[in-house]
Structure formats: C-alpha cells, structure tokens
Specification:
Chains A, B: Catalyzes the ATP-dependent phosphorylation of thiamine-monophosphate (TMP) to form thiamine-pyrophosphate (TPP), the active form of vitamin B1. Chains A, B: GO terms for molecular function: kinase activity. Chains A, B: InterPro entries: PurM-like_C_sf (IPR036676), PurM-like_N (IPR016188), PurM-like_N_sf (IPR036921), ThiL-like (IPR006283). The structure is a homodimer. Chain A is α+β, with helices and mostly antiparallel strands. Chain A has 3 domains: about 130 residues, 60s Ribosomal Protein L30, Chain: A, CATH 3.30.1330; about 110 residues, PurM-like C-terminal domain (Phosphoribosyl-aminoimidazole Synthetase, Chain A, domain 2); about 40 residues, no CATH class. Chain A is about 30% helix and about 25% strand. Chain A contains 9 helices and 13 strands. In chain A, the strands form 3 sheets. Chain A has a 7-stranded mixed sheet with strand order 8-10-7-11-9-12-13, with helices on both faces. A 4-stranded mixed sheet of chain A has the order 3-6-4-5, with helices on one face. In chain A, a hairpin with a 6-residue loop joins β1 and β2. Chains A and B meet through β2, β3, β4, β5 and β6 of A and β2, β3, β4, β5 and β6 of B.
C-alpha cells in the first residue's frame, strides 16, 4: 500500500534523504528547525461523509503548515502517519496523498513529504508533523506584542465556521447523520464557505512576510480569532482592541468562528503590515483584555461542537 | 489535561524553544536533522490489559529512538500526539508521559519532548516523531554493505517474541481476551521476556558507536532479524550468511522474532564491532540471499499476528 502512496509524494527541496530508510535527513541551513504536530481524527475533526479524501490530506497539510508559518518560518517538510481500518480502499489513501501533495504545491512550494507510517486502526486518523526553516531570523512568539503595536490579521475571518454551519444545517440526513450527497449539494451552492471548512487555504506565505516586516508577535488562529487573540494577549501581557469596521458584516462570527487558520500578528507602531495582512485593531496596555470598539469581548462560553457526537458518523 | 502532562516532560538539551507556542525550535548544529515517525494503535500494536501506561510511553519512545540510532544519529527530541477516548483517566495519560520521560532518560540522555497534540478518539493511539543529530557524520544507510563485511547485531534476539508468546499462552481469559491480572502474574514469573515485549530496552547508544566505528550499513530490527536482514541485503545488493552458533539455543526465534528493536549493522572486513555489537555472520556476494550455516533462510510465510483479532481487546 505504501508503494502506491509514496510515488505520489515529492520529498521536496530540503530532503537530503527521503523516505525508505529508518529515518529521513532534512536540511537545516541555519542550524535550527521549527517543528509542530497536529492530529486529525475521524469523528471529532472530520466526517468522511463530508470531507473527500483529497480534502483530508489538504487540510492535514494546511493546518500544520500554518503553525510553521506562525513562527515566521518557511515550511520545508512533513512526515505523515495514517491509521486506517483494514478495510480502507487504497484509493482513499491515494486521495489523502494527493491532497497532501497539492496543498504543499499550493501553500508551501518546495516543501515535501519525507516520511511516514501506516497502521491499522478502527478509526481513520492522520497525524502530521511539519518542519520549517527560520532562515536566520528569530522565531516570532506569542509573547512579544507591546502596547501601541498595530494588530493585523491575514486569512479568512469566520468562513470556516460559516461553512460548518451550512453542513450542519443542510448536509445531515433525517437522523442527523452527515450525508455525502447533501454535502455535495451544499458545496456546489456555497463552494467558498464549504471549501473554507473542508479544505482551507491559509495564508502560509504571509508568515515569513510578517517576520521580515518586524512582527513582534504572531499565532495561528485555529480556535477562533477572539480565543486565539486572548492567548496572544495573555502571553504578551497586553490588551487587544479590535475595530468593528475591520471585521466585516458579521463581526461576531469573525471573532468566534474556528478553523480559519489565519495568522494574527502584532507589528511595531507605524508599520504598514504586508499584504495579505489587514489592520484590525491595536495593542493596548490592559493586560489580557479584549475589546471591540471599546466593549469587552467574551468568548468563554463559545463552543461550536456543543451537542455534536464526535464518536458517530 | 495538557497542563497535567507537560510538566512531567523535559524539553531536553536541544530545545531552543519548547512546547507552548505554535511550534518548537530545535537545534541542528551540523545543519541537518534526522527524522522518523511511528504510530502505536490500541489493538494491533498493544493491549491495555497487558501494557501499563508507563510501558506504552516507554515503548513509543524506545521504538522511535532506535530508528534514529539506526541512522548513526544521536537522538535529540520527540514530538508526541495522543488520541484517546474522552473517558480516558488523566492518570493513564500521566503514565504515558512518565514512560516517555523515563525511556528518554535511560536510552537517550539529553533528548526531550518538545511538543505534542492531544485529541479525542474512540481508540487510544500514540504517534511519535523523533529527531536526531548526525554530528557531522554521513547517515548510515541500509544500502552500504559490501561482500566481505562483518555482520553484527546489538540487542535482544527473539526475547520480545518469546514474551509475546508467553502473554498469548498465559495471559488470556477463557474467551481468549487479554487479561490484566494474568499478565501481571506472567510478568512476575518472566520479567525479562515480558518486559522485552512490553517495554523494550533497545541499544540506542550503539547507533552512534557503530557509525563512528565505520559501519557500512545499519537498520533497526523491528520485524524480525531475518526479515529486516533481507531488507538490508536487498538494499545493498549482497547476501548475508548467519552463523548458527552466534544465535543462541533457539536460532529460529532469534531470526524470526519481531519487536526486539535491535540494530543490525555491517562493518568493513577486519573490524571488531564495538560493544554491545556481536558478530553474527558475514556479508557475501549472493545478492538478496540469506543463509544460516550455509542453508537458505526462508521467512516469507512468517507472521506472529496470524489469527490475532486486532480490532478487539
């Protein structure tokens, strides 16, 4: 089965030795490498009735690449472990491999897959570990924002949550279970929003742009802009003041919606953040406080998966 | 839950930035790093009735560290992703963390855990990605053995399979299911063999010793000495001639038994392999052929898990 999958994957420009031995060897030109890992499990993280195999590979790559980008690093390589039921068709695994490959080409050209593992499991699971090159720069941490900094964001704001809401509302059968034909129909009518949920296109290249523009802090927005902003605020000991007019027609979804995998960054006062970053507010001195046009933002009770049976489907 | 686990883990000497941001940063002093990844899934790879949580963390670390060692590299760091049922007790996860930590201290001092992820799943699963430092040396591949080389092995030969056979024979209940009390009893009577299966102690430090002694080829012996030897023979285009007197009282189990995680290496003619390596034969020119005292070795039909229901237990 690995023989069908590995030829679909390119080891990339940083692989000194790709898959096939006990381990791979990857270049780290500046003597350091960035590493992050993320799991996707059938049920809590995706449904096969909604996500095509290509979507799964794409999203597994995209989410990990964004974590690398959020350090200000250029993604170089992935390793991928897949646990799948013994009855899994090889074309599902091939679809996952094609999704990984296409996401790398689109989001991180030059990065590749340098290794992996395949195991039997009753539950389909994809574990990706991603690597990046800081190219001599310091990593951009969550903790470096200072009062007066410009607060900027790159990527979608709420679209992945809007897509998930559409799937919940319109792609479940009479008993509430995810339905593939209904999902295809919703996706045909709302390709942008459903695509943002199932196969997001995060602004991976913007990570390096932010770092070279002097970003003082940055993080990947995976749990919603407000929740992740709070992490940056707490790590930096600052407050964050959002501007409502920067958040579009539906600022609450922009703040609360998860899984967009955008980048939130702070830049020194007076910086014009590089595109695709857009200014959405300012850093202030009220440690740990988030505001929207001066009003407190409370996201403590927000959970889009409440009532969702992660074990079924 | 992560707050209970992370303090139990040391990021190690190579971590420039440990867990807590979007990604970690690890040192790669010679501008390269070795990377390998391996999954352990409840059912096919372990049973909770037999393995204690500490065993699981230990084995997940040990198997990955051996893959790093098999390249001739010094292990530096791990990232660990765990998928566990929502009902999992935190002390099980703490036990896994303690096993990871203790295996690192025992097998790869200075290496640490620099990151991880925790997800919900109906099946317990541990995915480890391990990193290593080649310290300026070339990686030791499977493909470098040459006729006349000394064939040597470090580590257990068959003990893990003997331990698994004891568990199969004596630690299953009346309906054939793994039983924790019976496993404790077997382990008390056969601590070495059952320990070799559940918490192996592979010769991780021997990887660097082999590389510095000039090993021409090396690999991790995880699927049985004969099966993995065949991989080395095919990659190198050579034959391997084992000596029966070097394989102990039970040479067939020594050749066929899986999961010992020893190291098989070839050294230039005349080399005295460094301890704990022991000479077990010689490399010859019969491409792809394995022999034992001149007789062909056939392991094509050997599978210790035949008839084993990987989905239950």
């Amino acid at each position: 089965m690995l023989a069908r999958i590995l030829p679909r994957l390119d080891p990339g420009d940083s692989a000194l030795l790709g898959a096939g031995d006990d381990a791979a060897v990857v270049a780290a030109p500046d003597g350091r490498y960035v590493v992050t890992t993320d799991l996707m499990v059938h049920g809590p993280d995706f449904r096969l009735a909604w996500s095509r195999p290509h979507d799964l590979g794409w999203k597994a790559a995209a989410t990990n690449l964004t974590d690398v980008a959020a350090m200000g690093a250029r993604p170089t390589a992935l390793v991928v472990s897949i646990a799948a039921p013994p009855t899994t068709r090889v074309d599902l695994l091939e679809g996952i491999a094609d999704g990984l490959r296409d996401a790398l080409v689109a989001l991180a050209p030059g990065a590749g897959v340098v290794g992996g593992d395949l195991s039997a499991s009753s539950v389909l699971m994809i574990a990706v570990t991603a690597f990046g090159d800081l190219e001599g720069r310091a990593p951009v941490l969550r903790s470096g924002a200072r009062p007066g900094d410009v607060l900027a964001h790159a990527g979608a704001r709420g679209d992945a949550a809007r897509g998930l809401a559409l799937l919940f509302a319109q792609a479940r059968d009479g008993s509430g279970e995810p339905d593939a034909a209904l999902a295809d129909d919703v996706r045909a009518r709302h390709p942008h929003l459903v695509g943002a949920q199932l196969a997001p296109e995060p602004p991976v290249a913007a990570g390096v742009l932010a770092a070279t523009a002097g970003a003082t802090a940055m993080l990947d927005v995976s749990d919603g802009l407000a929740r992740d902003a709070r992490r940056l605020a707490e790590a930096s000991g600052v407050g964050l003041a959002f501007r409502r007019d920067a958040l579009g027609d539906d600022p609450m979804t922009a703040l609360a919606g998860a899984e967009d995998h955008g980048l939130l960054a702070a830049f020194p006062p007076g910086t014009v953040p590089p595109r695709p970053f857009e200014v959405i507010g300012v850093v202030d001195g009220h440690a740990g406080r988030l505001t929207l046009d001066g009003e407190p933002v409370d996201t403590s009770g927000w959970d889009p998966y409440t009532g969702w049976d992660g074990g079924a489907g």
